[in-house]
Amino acid sequence: MKGSIRFSDVSKIFRWRGPRSRHETLKGAFFHRRTRRSSSAQHVALDGIDLEVRPGEAVALIGPNGSGKSTLLKLTGGILNPTSGTIEVDGRVTALIELGAGFHPEITGRENVVINGMLLGLGRREIEERMQEIIEFADIGSFIDQPVKIYSSGMYVRLGFAVAVATDPDVLLIDEVLAVGDEAFTRRCLDRLARMRQRGVTMVLVSHDLDLVTSFADRALYLSRGRIVAEGPADAVAARYRSDAAGDSGHDDQAPSAREVDGGQRWGNGDVKITGVEMLVGGKPARLVAGGSPSSLRIRYSVRRAVEDFVFGVAWHRSDGTQVSGHNTDLAGLVPRRLANSGEVCCDYDSLQLAPGDYLIDVAVHARNGLAYDYWCDALKVRVTSKVEWPGVWSPPHRWRSTGPEWE
Amino acid sequence: MTVLRLLWRHRALIAVLVKRDLDARYRASVLGFFWSLLNPLLLLAVYAVVFTYIFSPRFPGGDPYPLFLFSGLLPWLFFSGAVLDGSATLVDNGPLLAKVMCPPELFPAVTVLSHLIHHLLALPILLLAMVVSSTAGLLPFPWSFPLVAVALVPWLLTTGGAVFAISVLSVHYRDMRDLIGHLLNLLFFSSPIIYSLEGLQVPVMLHRVLTLNPLASLVTIYRDAVFAGRVSSPRLWLTAFAVGVLSWWLGTLIFAAYRETVVESV
Q1: Mind listing the pLDDT tens digit for each residue in A158-170?
Q2: Which are the contacts of A382, defined by CB distance < 8 A and separation ≥ 6?
Q3: CATH number, domain containing residue A193
């Protein structure tokens, strides 16, 4: 299956070759021959990792520095080879690590794009075809024909990102790259990544930004000292890591409010219970939605006592409390008859016309008079992305027409 | 063989990387390509003056000396230039290797090929010098000149092998580069570049040692073709090819032994 990753019992051991190490030089190698083997220190970066990532899945790797996250990513990308164990990765892999690191300063951006693209596995013609798209995304205009040495660091990174994502990978490996660059760039990257996810690209993300991790990934792996400490839904694993990190350092500035951890308040008599809420994009659960995408909200429920009076409702609001929208089955004119079996209710949105940002969704099932069976505040948090930072909450598709003014 | 197959598979990438190398080298200066000719020409001028006016060479068949020297110096500069650059190629491309999955073999190969192209660009100048000198009656035109294409094969193999070995060793032993500079110096003077082994008036022991230098046969077949205007003996050709194949085999073997740890070490 294209886009799948499988690690079985993978270990990676680095032999210590620091600049102060003894046999860094030929001289050292000759004169310290005897002590060589015995004294060569080892560092176990990964220890017996088993991992399986399905095509289209987004997995985040979290953990303290030096826990093996980046090593795992590099092993997946084939940049490093495992000391033991086997790794199978199917499909084209692109790694977003140190963007633009391979650019040669003396030659132009355009030529560097060709070389970088070919290194990433594209043919020459494929790159020429995508050149315009790359230049547009990198937003560097005529600088593309200037030597890369005169680029600002932002242009450098933008071009690096643009080439990497233009390769149409089946598997995308992302190492903290969203931490560099300005806000506008980060936003566009995130939007691009969201769109790639919706297309079914498998993603493995290394990040210290736990908000990003929870909005981006389906699943998270918590690594510490080369081993997997916890694995599971991104929220749960991120929460575990947060509490560990807070415990380690004694600071709790990283710790979120209780409300965020257990998904907010919830009440109701329990006749009907909401068992799961998911945002679906292209039929797959997602926390990251590119603005304007068709999507649906799926509510799963189980019935403890059959009821004849019921309304399913959804309320969207911003994290600052601003109401965005509320809709329910009653307002839509659906008349309830009987609710006896467990099942699911979907609210389909033709296009999610929301401005970029984080949205919290309350989900409820209640009687028409307001009696709550299950009312779940902040049941789901969704991040909407967009190329442009539209202010406000509504982001309708729009065009401008005019007769008077002249535009560039 | 597997190395050759691997290089062939990535030929398009190698081509753009070689182009990048040449572009970067020539573009950074106004004189561009001519700069790179200036270096051998200056070297040639120095040696020609020293050995024509200060020391007189004690061997037959070295006339006119500047041309004799030029025809020995050119392939040597290809070899030594590639080896010197080769000692830095993996380290320089370290960021790329750490970021993209690409076989490290590419970079030594690119170094060798860009120096080869460099060499090929200088060949017309050697040919021109021969045409002019023979028209002026200084020497008979060497009709064996086209044989240089064959003579370059062992040169390419030898250089390739040396660069493979040195590139990967320099990653693991950082003082390799200094050592290489000294070794190249030694090799230069022990190779028949500024002199010829034929009728050389030196002690027998020294002559024997000089003949054992693996580069001796390569220099000689090259110079026989482009300067002396004769076809070297089959034994000499065989030796040169044997040196080339051995060097390639050994170089790729050493590379293979260290290649796994290249990315971790750069």
Answers
A1: 888 888 888 888 9
A2: A215, A279, A287, A288, A289, A358, A359, A361
A3: 3.40.50.300
